[in-house]
From TrEMBL:
Keywords (A to Z) from UniProt: Nucleus, Repeat, WD repeat
Protein source organism: Oryza sativa subsp. indica (Rice)
Domain NLE: 18-78
PROSITE patterns: WD_REPEATS_1 (PS00678), WD_REPEATS_2 (PS50082), WD_REPEATS_REGION (PS50294)
Location relative to the cell: Nucleus, Nucleolus
Family annotation (InterPro entries): NLE (IPR012972), WD40/YVTN_repeat-like_dom_sf (IPR015943), WD40_PAC1 (IPR020472), WD40_repeat_CS (IPR019775), WD40_repeat_dom_sf (IPR036322), WD40_rpt (IPR001680)
Protein name in UniProt: NLE domain-containing protein
Location (main, coarse): nucleus
WD repeat boundaries on the chain: 111-152, 153-194, 196-242, 243-283
Any Gene Ontology CC annotation: nucleolus
Coiled coil regions, renumbered to chain: none
Length: 374
């Protein structure tokens, strides 16, 4: 009676199977060598690897022989390459990325503490801290590990409507329904100086000057229901430029990476401003109702500055500025900075403000107000 090894040797000699060794990308062998039939291809190899690795979820793999991906059955590959059947075939299995949608079925944490409605939340540029503003007139900095407040900051006399981190992560500014702006130190939770006063009505939005234009960050722009936008210098604690020209409430503002400020208003227009003297560069018109929100194509890198997924820290302001500029240039590429506006007219417009006053596209389909935001 013939042994199983003798049967395998006979199958091999007859050319009906191939001896293979499955190897990880690091070079580790997955078990002993196997005699595999000529009709085994990538789907069957994938089942074998999942079985040998005891994967409960059937993970996808690609297979390589040398530098070439195996896309046919072993027999066809041997014929194409005129390979020697007496030599063990070394097959490297490479795990592939999994794109899978999983339903959210539980809340990972409930962060309680505010005693009134939470009206604004924002992560720090490095993603390590969370700040919130509330109708209880406080600003809170949160420990994301314990879901407890690091600091509860009291200073506002009315609802905190908006908050914004400086792109270098060193400061947070909050605006309230009383029209006041307060600067906070995230490391201590202390208020920096007295509130900045100048707006006659409540604050609607705040945006900082990008860190690749100025490091450390000093200036930010605020907008208000009073129809004005104001540029503030946190060092001198003064409004250095007042941007006036809108005929109704200014609802939103963005400080772009090219040094321009964009303001959207209930007067249905978007105005573009330069920031050295506060001159109006151009007015973008097209919406038939209030402009509710603005979003920039470069907004993510403007908000996060020099910080990325690597968690790298910077020892000097100049080093941070150079890193932020490199990220901005890579993000923007050869294309101009683009702007999207959302309106009460149920439409969105795509603009290239540095090139033309005319919109690149008018996007329709919404049946209610457009409140776009990155």
């Amino acid at each position: 009676m013939e042994s199983p090894n003798q049967n395998q040797q006979q199958e091999s000699s007859s050319g009906s199977s191939v001896m293979c060794h499955l190897v990880s990308p690091e070079g580790d062998h997955l078990g002993a060598a196997l005699y595999l039939p000529h009709n085994v291809g990538p789907p069957q190899l994938q089942e074998i690897v999942n079985h040998l690795l005891h994967n409960e979820d059937k993970l996808p793999y690609a297979f390589y022989i040398g530098d070439e991906e195996l896309s046919v059955q072993l027999g066809a590959y041997m014929q194409q390459k005129n390979a020697n059947v007496e030599v063990t075939l070394r097959i490297v299995y490479q795990p592939q990325a999994i794109f899978r949608i999983r339903p959210v079925n539980r809340c990972s944490a409930t962060i309680a503490g505010h005693t009134e409605a939470v009206l604004a939340v924002s992560f720090s540029p490095d993603g390590r801290c969370l700040a919130s503003g509330s109708g209880d007139t406080t600003v809170r900095f949160w420990d994301l590990s314990t879901q407890t407040p690091l600091f509860t900051c009291k200073g506002h006399k009315n609802w905190v409507l908006c908050i914004a981190w400086s792109p270098d992560g060193n400061h947070l500014v909050s605006g309230s329904k009383s029209g006041e702006l307060i600067l906070w130190d995230p490391k201590t939770g202390k208020q920096l100086g007295t509130p900045l006063m100048g707006h006659r009505k409540w604050i609607t939005a705040v945006s900082w000057e990008p860190v690749h234009l100025q490091s450390p960050c000093r200036r930010f722009v605020s907008t208000s229901k009073d129809g004005d936008a104001r540029i503030w210098d946190m060092t001198t604690r003064k409004c250095v430029i007042a941007l006036t020209g809108h005929t109704n409430s200014v609802t939103c503002v963005k400080w772009g990476g090219d040094g321009l400020i964009y303001t959207g208003s209930e007067d249905c227009s978007i105005k573009v401003w330069e920031t050295s003297q506060g001159k109006l560069v151009k007015t973008l018109q097209g919406h038939g109702h209030w402009v509710n929100s603005l979003a920039l194509s470069t907004e993510y890198v403007l908000r996060t500055g020099a910080y990325d997924h690597t968690g790298k820290t910077y020892s000097t302001a100049e080093e941070m500025k150079e890193a932020a500029l490199a990220r901005y240039k890579k993000m923007r590429g050869n294309a101009p900075e683009r702007l999207v506006s959302g309106s009460d007219d149920f439409t969105m417009f795509l603009w290239e403000p540095t090139i033309s006053k005319q919109p690149k596209a008018r996007m329709t389909g919404h049946q209610k107000f457009c409140l776009t935001e990155y």
